[in-house]
Amino acid sequence: MKIVVKKDKLEAAKYAARLLADELKANPETVFGLATGRTMEPLYAELCEIYKAEKLDFSKAVSFNLDEYAGLPGSDVNSYRAYMQMNLFDHVNFKSTNLPDGVAPDAEAEAVRYDNAIKAAGLDIQLLGIGNNGHIGFNEPGTAFDSRTRHVKLTDATIEQNQGLFPKPEDMPRYAFTMGIGTIMEAKKIILVATGAAKTGILAAAVAGKVTEDVPASVLQNHSNVIIVADEDAAAEVPAELIAAE
Ligand code: F6R
Fold this sequence. Notes:
Helices cover 32% and strands 17% of the residues. The chain is α/β, with parallel strands linked by helices.
């Protein structure tokens, strides 16, 4: 695990966007695993800038998002499909982009379909954020490390973290689809981005604490190709000897 610390959230976003751009340049057919959330907004803005400035070409690349709210169609402004269109997909030329269908009539079948599609494509690089409770995707504390893509109930901590993004907080869905931890761990490379003081304690627990299902992100200590990109606030409790000299 390589841990890179940048001055602030913008510098962290720039560093992570550069990693994604370099990945695409090295392999135009990259299969990207993508994330949503506040952390990713400056990252995608930067990736769009690099796309224009360096004429990146995503036309042979495909993407699979980590998760989607259950019960929201992609046309709903609060869906993760809408977030991705607004922040990235409307601005770059991906060959195809994939998210779970939040309104699929059979949730279990949808989860299996999505997991199979990811497995068939093979994730080259998975981008992750981290929840205040250590979740990755919507894999909440206690999730089995070998879990696959599935329909899940969100925890109170996650509802509290995200409901402010809804015009009416009570409208935030209570269920979602998420890639499983086992699914995520099959990616060849993983980049986790953590910024802001709300992530300080949980980031230290994830990278330097015990590997435990109580802290889902701690599973990344078991993966052979992980880069953690944090800002100084989020990295404040990460032991200095774990931080890469840049
Ligand atoms: C989003 C996702 C979540 C977020 C996490 C951090 O697709 O899977 O795990 O990455 O909740 O969210 P922010 O960046 O809003 O702090």
